[in-house]
Amino acid sequence: MNLKHFISIHDITVEEFHELLDLALKLKKEHKAGIKHTMLDGKTLGMIFTKSSTRTRISFEVGMYQLGGHPMYLNANDMQLGRGESIYDTANVMSRFVDGIMIRTYDHQDVLDLAKFGSVPVINALTDHLHPCQAMADLMTVYEHKGTLKGLKLAYVGDGNNVAHSLLYACAKAGMHMSVATPVGYECDATVVANAIDDAKETGAQITICNDPKEAIKDADVVCTDTWTSMGQEAEKAERVKIFKDYQVNKELFSLAKDDAIFIHCLPAYRGYEVTEDIIDGPMSVVFDEAENRLHAQKAILVALMG
Ligand code: CP
Ligand code: NVA
After folding, report:
1. Is 109 among the residues known to form the active site?
2. Are 268 and 158 in the same domain?
3. Closest CA to 172 of 194, 147, 196
4. pTM (predicted TM-score)
5. What ligand is nearest to the CA atom of residue 267?
6. Residue 103: pLDDT band by 50, 70, 90 thresholds?
7. Ligand 1 geometric centre to CA of 55 (Å)
8. 273 and 144, same domain (yes or no)
């Protein structure tokens, strides 16, 4: 694998996508067998957070530790970045100290600039536009539960957001069909959809975009949703709850998926809004396997970039 950064799944090849998944599965198996890894011995990962996090912070910190490296949590508000220091200077300075940078922030361009101006690998740990580490963990989880990815159908119901975008790219690379249903005005970014459709030509994945949750979920093997109000959209919450109410993943909607369909959600989840308790806490839900796989999927990314 010859990865320089991990910013978008659209940027990696189908082969690299599968190599990362295979490596994640291998690292998980070996870790469970008690095998110690030292691939990142002496390496430091600077982890910049401009937004909140539970899973991403913990899984990256634990992952670095398990690989023999050192994670450094950096709250952007405690950095000079939070007082207006430029991405250019931050990238140059950090590149003199650390071996890799993970960043969670609002503006996707900031991640691209960090990679452009710095000289160490950059990992996108969520922007308003994409959440690629999540999508890797999601498809790893689907693979573990279904034994395959190619030819399966994933239905995403809800907001056409960062999580939906990265799943579009991941499904396209995996040869998984994906249908997305969002309210009018909350559709996925048109460029992302066009890129995913283009990527899907190589793998045979079918990408379908609509506004009808019933149409999207029909015969799905995997059902996915995400919060209706992403970080930074808090002021729109009341309006969004009204607009998204018919997009709730509940028993009635879920019954249209295949009998053995599984439910995934990146978490944090808001029960009673985008999903009902009987679904997210029911036997079809694999959300905690999915959360755990953030660790293993990201360890593969870290090894590929910094190992
Ligand atoms: N799914 C996810 O990225 O969770 P956190 O916001 O807790 O990191
Ligand atoms: N779409 C959500 C994902 C949280 C992990 C957000 O951006 O807030």
Report:
1. no
2. yes
3. 196
4. 0.98
5. 1
6. very high
7. 5
8. yes
